[in-house]
Design a protein that fits this description.
By secondary structure, the chain is of the alpha+beta class. The chain is built from six helices and 13 strands. The protein is globular and about 65 Å long. The structure holds zinc ion (ZN).
Length: 288
């Protein structure tokens, strides 16, 4: 392959940010933090290793995901509790905020609602930043470990990937069959997972999570949420997943309610303002 004469000049063109986020509606973090300071715990669930569990968080309440016992990463799905078709949109959250999420950034919902579902209000791993390999924590670049990719790559039949764990948890929570629940499971926020892309080949990599027992990630629920968290079979993701090889630990999810009036001035975000005509004039369906 020959390079054009101006190859270097073309490569030297400066990038532009796809979605300049100066106009993104900003969360009132100070208000959220003050409200969290008044909050009382209303429920908790301990997610067993290589399993997932569901939890409910009403709009205006908080939830915390904590590392307990040992370093462990978690795969998080979120749905609108009243309409499971509104779910976390990892790709758009990545496009809006970047490859990894931290304090002040949001988990956005799918089309056509595209609104904040949850806002990160505290991150004890915020100090990690971006390491020398281009790795960082809490990514929205991975998908979720799943038995199909495992089968493709090694012919395995492994049943405790996050994808399967999330399906079982959602089916148990809703009464759906496994087949009904599977299409609702979506790409995740990889809580505590340390990942990036290699600079030379652009491949997705993971490395041992810097998380330690006592670390946590706090979220504010912008709408009524059904969540599901899987304690990944990769454990701290220092070696492999899609197997029972890695040491795995539970993850704790706690839900907190702020005191009455603590969120004065806050409103749950409305659905996206686009009119949904997509360039065609809307015509009501005719009877018959
Ligand atoms: Zn996983």
């Amino acid at each position: 392959m020959t390079q054009p004469a101006d190859a270097d000049a073309r490569r030297a063109v400066k990038p532009v940010i796809c979605y300049p986020n100066e106009t993104l509606p900003l969360p009132d973090l100070a208000l959220y933090r003050r409200a969290f300071g008044t909050a009382c715990k209303t429920s908790e669930v301990l997610v067993p290793p290589r399993e997932a569990a569901c939890f409910h968080v009403p709009a205006g309440h908080f939830f915390r995901i904590s590392s307990v016992d040992g370093p462990q990463v978690g795969d998080l799905n979120l749905w609108n509790a009243a309409d499971l078709s509104e779910r976390f949109y990892s790709g758009k959250s990545r496009a809006l905020h970047g490859t990894h999420l931290t304090v002040g950034e949001r988990m956005w919902s799918s089309f056509p609602t595209l609104r904040p579902m949850a806002t990160i209000v505290e991150d004890t791993l915020g100090w990690y930043g971006m390491d020398a390999y281009g790795g960082s924590v809490h990514d929205v670049i991975g998908t979720r470990c799943d038995p199909y990719t495992g089968n493709l790559l090694s012919g395995a039949q492994y049943h405790h990937c996050c994808h399967s764990n999330l399906i079982r948890a959602l089916a148990d929570e809703t009464g759906m069959s496994m087949a009904e629940a599977e299409p609702y499971v979506h790409d995740v926020l990889n809580v505590f997972m340390c990942t990036g892309f290699t600079r030379d080949t652009g491949q997705y990599f993971m490395k041992a999570s810097p998380v330690r027992p006592g670390d946590y990630l706090d979220f504010f629920a912008e709408i009524d949420l059904l969540g599901a968290l899987s304690a990944c079979p990769g454990g701290d993701c220092s070696s492999e997943h899609t197997s029972d090889v890695a040491a795995c630990y539970p993850l704790l999810v706690e839900v907190f309610a702020p005191s009455e009036g603590a969120l004065e001035g806050w409103e749950s975000p409305a659905v996206n303002g686009y009119d949904r005509t997509h360039g065609r004039v809307f015509t009501a369906p005719q009877p018959g």
